[in-house]
Design goal:
By secondary structure, the chain is α+β, with helices and mostly antiparallel strands. It contains six helices and eight strands; from the N terminus they run αααβαββββββααβ. Helix 4 packs antiparallel against helix 6. The longest helix has about 55 residues. This is DUF881 domain-containing protein.
Protein backbone atom coordinates (compact mmCIF):
# COMPACT_ATOMS: atom_id res chain seq x y z
CA UNK A 1 0.00 0.00 0.00
CA UNK A 2 2.88 2.32 0.80
CA UNK A 3 4.46 1.76 -2.62
CA UNK A 4 1.18 2.50 -4.38
CA UNK A 5 0.74 5.70 -2.42
CA UNK A 6 4.27 6.81 -3.40
CA UNK A 7 3.56 6.18 -7.09
CA UNK A 8 0.37 8.18 -6.90
CA UNK A 9 2.22 11.12 -5.36
CA UNK A 10 4.83 11.01 -8.13
CA UNK A 11 2.17 11.05 -10.84
CA UNK A 12 0.42 13.94 -9.14
CA UNK A 13 3.61 15.99 -9.12
CA UNK A 14 4.23 15.32 -12.81
CA UNK A 15 0.68 16.44 -13.66
CA UNK A 16 1.05 19.61 -11.67
CA UNK A 17 4.40 20.39 -13.35
CA UNK A 18 2.90 19.80 -16.78
CA UNK A 19 0.02 22.14 -16.03
CA UNK A 20 2.41 24.80 -14.74
CA UNK A 21 4.56 24.55 -17.89
CA UNK A 22 1.53 25.09 -20.11
CA UNK A 23 0.64 28.17 -18.13
CA UNK A 24 4.14 29.56 -18.47
CA UNK A 25 4.22 28.93 -22.26
CA UNK A 26 1.01 30.81 -22.94
CA UNK A 27 1.31 34.13 -24.84
CA UNK A 28 -1.30 35.78 -22.63
CA UNK A 29 0.85 35.57 -19.54
CA UNK A 30 3.51 37.93 -21.12
CA UNK A 31 6.29 35.84 -19.65
CA UNK A 32 8.75 33.57 -21.41
CA UNK A 33 11.30 31.15 -20.23
CA UNK A 34 14.38 33.00 -19.17
CA UNK A 35 17.61 31.98 -20.94
CA UNK A 36 20.85 33.22 -19.45
CA UNK A 37 23.27 34.70 -22.04
CA UNK A 38 26.99 34.22 -21.95
CA UNK A 39 28.88 37.43 -21.16
CA UNK A 40 30.60 39.09 -24.24
CA UNK A 41 33.91 40.88 -24.14
CA UNK A 42 33.67 44.66 -24.46
CA UNK A 43 35.92 45.35 -27.47
CA UNK A 44 35.22 49.08 -27.51
CA UNK A 45 36.30 49.36 -23.94
CA UNK A 46 39.60 47.60 -24.67
CA UNK A 47 40.25 49.85 -27.68
CA UNK A 48 39.58 52.99 -25.68
CA UNK A 49 41.92 51.76 -22.99
CA UNK A 50 44.70 51.20 -25.56
CA UNK A 51 44.24 54.71 -26.98
CA UNK A 52 44.36 56.20 -23.54
CA UNK A 53 47.64 54.43 -22.75
CA UNK A 54 49.18 55.59 -26.07
CA UNK A 55 48.15 59.19 -25.42
CA UNK A 56 49.65 59.05 -21.95
CA UNK A 57 52.95 57.68 -23.30
CA UNK A 58 53.15 60.35 -26.04
CA UNK A 59 52.42 63.12 -23.57
CA UNK A 60 55.06 61.75 -21.23
CA UNK A 61 57.69 61.64 -23.99
CA UNK A 62 56.89 65.20 -25.08
CA UNK A 63 57.22 66.36 -21.52
CA UNK A 64 60.61 64.65 -21.18
CA UNK A 65 61.89 66.19 -24.43
CA UNK A 66 60.71 69.64 -23.42
CA UNK A 67 62.38 69.26 -20.06
CA UNK A 68 65.64 68.19 -21.67
CA UNK A 69 65.55 71.15 -24.12
CA UNK A 70 64.89 73.67 -21.37
CA UNK A 71 67.63 72.13 -19.27
CA UNK A 72 70.09 72.52 -22.16
CA UNK A 73 69.13 76.18 -22.63
CA UNK A 74 69.41 76.85 -18.92
CA UNK A 75 72.79 75.12 -18.79
CA UNK A 76 74.06 77.20 -21.72
CA UNK A 77 72.81 80.41 -20.16
CA UNK A 78 74.25 79.47 -16.83
CA UNK A 79 77.59 78.65 -18.54
CA UNK A 80 77.88 82.15 -20.02
CA UNK A 81 76.52 83.75 -16.87
CA UNK A 82 79.11 82.04 -14.70
CA UNK A 83 82.03 83.13 -16.91
CA UNK A 84 84.10 86.02 -15.70
CA UNK A 85 85.17 88.92 -17.89
CA UNK A 86 88.51 87.41 -18.93
CA UNK A 87 86.89 84.17 -20.04
CA UNK A 88 84.27 86.04 -22.05
CA UNK A 89 87.02 88.13 -23.68
CA UNK A 90 88.95 84.96 -24.51
CA UNK A 91 85.84 83.36 -26.02
CA UNK A 92 85.18 86.50 -28.06
CA UNK A 93 88.79 86.57 -29.28
CA UNK A 94 88.59 82.92 -30.30
CA UNK A 95 85.40 83.60 -32.23
CA UNK A 96 87.00 86.61 -33.95
CA UNK A 97 90.05 84.50 -34.81
CA UNK A 98 87.87 81.82 -36.36
CA UNK A 99 86.00 84.45 -38.37
CA UNK A 100 89.30 85.98 -39.51
CA UNK A 101 90.61 82.55 -40.56
CA UNK A 102 87.45 81.88 -42.54
CA UNK A 103 87.68 85.26 -44.28
CA UNK A 104 91.35 84.62 -45.07
CA UNK A 105 90.51 81.18 -46.43
CA UNK A 106 87.78 82.70 -48.59
CA UNK A 107 90.28 85.23 -49.95
CA UNK A 108 92.76 82.44 -50.75
CA UNK A 109 90.10 80.43 -52.55
CA UNK A 110 89.01 83.48 -54.55
CA UNK A 111 92.64 84.13 -55.47
CA UNK A 112 93.08 80.54 -56.60
CA UNK A 113 89.88 80.77 -58.63
CA UNK A 114 91.07 83.97 -60.31
CA UNK A 115 94.44 82.35 -61.02
CA UNK A 116 92.73 79.37 -62.62
CA UNK A 117 90.56 81.66 -64.72
CA UNK A 118 93.60 83.71 -65.73
CA UNK A 119 95.54 80.56 -66.61
CA UNK A 120 92.62 79.29 -68.64
CA UNK A 121 92.41 82.63 -70.46
CA UNK A 122 96.16 82.60 -71.08
CA UNK A 123 95.98 79.07 -72.41
CA UNK A 124 93.08 80.04 -74.67
CA UNK A 125 94.98 83.10 -75.87
CA UNK A 126 98.10 81.02 -76.45
CA UNK A 127 96.03 78.49 -78.37
CA UNK A 128 94.56 81.24 -80.56
CA UNK A 129 98.01 82.73 -81.20
CA UNK A 130 99.43 79.31 -82.04
CA UNK A 131 96.54 78.64 -84.41
CA UNK A 132 96.99 82.04 -86.04
CA UNK A 133 100.73 81.49 -86.42
CA UNK A 134 100.09 78.06 -87.87
CA UNK A 135 97.66 79.49 -90.41
CA UNK A 136 100.05 82.31 -91.32
CA UNK A 137 102.92 79.89 -91.67
CA UNK A 138 100.75 77.57 -93.76
CA UNK A 139 99.79 80.39 -96.12
CA UNK A 140 103.36 81.65 -96.50
CA UNK A 141 104.79 78.19 -97.04
CA UNK A 142 101.97 77.29 -99.43
CA UNK A 143 100.72 74.34 -97.37
CA UNK A 144 97.22 75.77 -96.98
CA UNK A 145 94.75 77.03 -99.60
CA UNK A 146 93.68 80.66 -99.38
CA UNK A 147 90.83 82.94 -100.39
CA UNK A 148 90.10 86.65 -100.18
CA UNK A 149 90.05 89.90 -102.11
CA UNK A 150 92.59 90.39 -104.83
CA UNK A 151 93.20 90.46 -108.56
CA UNK A 152 93.48 88.07 -111.48
CA UNK A 153 96.05 89.05 -114.11
CA UNK A 154 96.05 87.43 -117.55
CA UNK A 155 99.13 87.84 -119.73
CA UNK A 156 98.93 86.80 -123.37
CA UNK A 157 101.70 85.49 -125.60
CA UNK A 158 104.27 88.14 -126.54
CA UNK A 159 103.87 89.16 -130.17
CA UNK A 160 107.11 91.16 -130.33
CA UNK A 161 109.28 89.27 -127.89
CA UNK A 162 108.73 86.08 -125.92
CA UNK A 163 107.62 86.78 -122.35
CA UNK A 164 110.70 85.76 -120.39
CA UNK A 165 111.46 84.82 -116.79
CA UNK A 166 112.85 88.24 -115.85
CA UNK A 167 109.69 90.20 -116.63
CA UNK A 168 107.53 87.57 -114.89
CA UNK A 169 109.80 87.75 -111.83
CA UNK A 170 109.46 91.55 -111.85
CA UNK A 171 105.67 91.14 -111.88
CA UNK A 172 105.80 88.86 -108.82
CA UNK A 173 108.04 91.33 -106.96
CA UNK A 174 105.76 94.27 -107.77
CA UNK A 175 102.76 92.36 -106.45
CA UNK A 176 104.62 91.46 -103.24
CA UNK A 177 105.68 95.07 -102.75
CA UNK A 178 102.03 96.11 -103.15
CA UNK A 179 101.02 93.80 -100.31
CA UNK A 180 100.10 90.55 -102.04
CA UNK A 181 99.85 87.84 -99.37
CA UNK A 182 99.35 84.77 -101.56
CA UNK A 183 100.29 84.37 -105.25
CA UNK A 184 99.90 81.60 -107.80
CA UNK A 185 100.96 81.37 -111.46
CA UNK A 186 98.81 79.05 -113.52
CA UNK A 187 98.74 75.92 -111.31
CA UNK A 188 101.90 76.64 -109.31
CA UNK A 189 101.82 78.18 -105.81
CA UNK A 190 104.43 80.91 -105.42
CA UNK A 191 106.40 80.79 -102.13
CA UNK A 192 109.52 82.50 -100.79
CA UNK A 193 111.84 80.01 -102.47
CA UNK A 194 110.08 80.06 -105.86
CA UNK A 195 112.30 80.42 -108.91
CA UNK A 196 111.39 81.17 -112.54
CA UNK A 197 113.47 80.28 -115.56
CA UNK A 198 113.08 80.35 -119.32
CA UNK A 199 112.10 77.31 -121.32
CA UNK A 200 111.97 76.62 -125.04
CA UNK A 201 108.25 77.08 -124.96
CA UNK A 202 106.95 79.01 -121.99
CA UNK A 203 108.48 79.21 -118.52
CA UNK A 204 109.57 76.83 -115.76
CA UNK A 205 108.30 77.70 -112.27
CA UNK A 206 109.73 75.56 -109.46
CA UNK A 207 110.30 72.74 -111.93
CA UNK A 208 106.85 72.93 -113.52
CA UNK A 209 106.57 74.05 -117.16
CA UNK A 210 103.83 76.60 -117.85
CA UNK A 211 102.72 78.09 -121.16
CA UNK A 212 100.85 81.24 -122.14
CA UNK A 213 98.32 82.51 -121.60
CA UNK A 214 99.73 83.08 -118.08
CA UNK A 215 97.22 83.54 -115.28
CA UNK A 216 98.51 85.18 -112.12
CA UNK A 217 96.23 85.25 -109.04
CA UNK A 218 97.13 87.44 -106.08
CA UNK A 219 95.29 87.97 -102.77
CA UNK A 220 95.56 91.43 -101.23
CA UNK A 221 94.10 94.92 -101.57
CA UNK A 222 92.58 94.90 -105.08
CA UNK A 223 93.16 98.63 -105.70
CA UNK A 224 96.80 98.59 -104.63
CA UNK A 225 97.56 95.44 -106.60
CA UNK A 226 95.91 96.87 -109.71
CA UNK A 227 97.91 100.09 -109.38
CA UNK A 228 101.15 98.13 -109.04
CA UNK A 229 100.53 96.54 -112.46
CA UNK A 230 98.90 99.44 -114.33
CA UNK A 231 101.16 102.26 -113.12
CA UNK A 232 102.71 104.24 -115.95
CA UNK A 233 106.06 102.77 -116.92
CA UNK A 234 105.45 99.79 -114.67
CA UNK A 235 105.53 96.10 -115.36
CA UNK A 236 102.18 96.12 -117.13
CA UNK A 237 103.30 98.83 -119.54
CA UNK A 238 106.55 96.98 -120.22
CA UNK A 239 104.68 93.79 -121.11
CA UNK A 240 102.50 95.68 -123.55
CA UNK A 241 105.17 97.88 -125.15
CA UNK A 242 108.30 95.75 -125.09
CA UNK A 243 106.81 92.28 -125.42
CA UNK A 244 103.66 93.07 -127.33
CA UNK A 245 101.61 91.11 -124.80
CA UNK A 246 98.00 91.73 -123.91
CA UNK A 247 97.63 92.38 -120.14
CA UNK A 248 94.28 92.28 -118.37
CA UNK A 249 93.87 93.04 -114.64
CA UNK A 250 90.56 92.02 -113.06
CA UNK A 251 89.89 93.01 -109.39
CA UNK A 252 87.65 90.66 -107.40
CA UNK A 253 86.18 90.29 -103.92
CA UNK A 254 86.68 86.54 -104.01
CA UNK A 255 89.95 85.12 -105.22
CA UNK A 256 90.50 81.42 -104.45
CA UNK A 257 94.00 79.97 -104.55
CA UNK A 258 93.75 76.26 -103.87
CA UNK A 259 97.17 75.32 -105.26
CA UNK A 260 99.26 74.01 -102.36
CA UNK A 261 102.82 72.88 -101.79
CA UNK A 262 104.34 70.13 -99.71
CA UNK A 263 106.14 71.28 -96.58
CA UNK A 264 109.90 71.39 -97.06
CA UNK A 265 112.42 70.46 -94.40
CA UNK A 266 115.19 72.98 -93.88
CA UNK A 267 118.60 71.41 -94.12
CA UNK A 268 120.65 74.09 -92.37
CA UNK A 269 118.33 76.54 -90.64
CA UNK A 270 117.18 75.64 -87.12
CA UNK A 271 114.94 77.48 -84.68
CA UNK A 272 116.54 79.21 -81.70
CA UNK A 273 115.24 77.83 -78.39
Amino acid sequence: MARKAQSDNMLEKMRNQHVQDKVNDRMETGSFPTVRKKPRKDLNRASNKSRLLSSILIALMCALLGFAYMSQINNTKSTYETMDESELVRLLNESNTQISNLVQRKTQLNSQLNSLKSAANEQEQARKIAKQNEETSGLISGRLPAKGQGVTIRIGRGLTTKVDASIMFNLIEELRNAGAEVIAINNVRVITSTYIQDAEEGLIVDGTTIKPTYTVKAIGNPQELSNAVDIAGGVGAQLQVKYGSNVNVQPSDSIIIDEVREATQNQYAKTVE
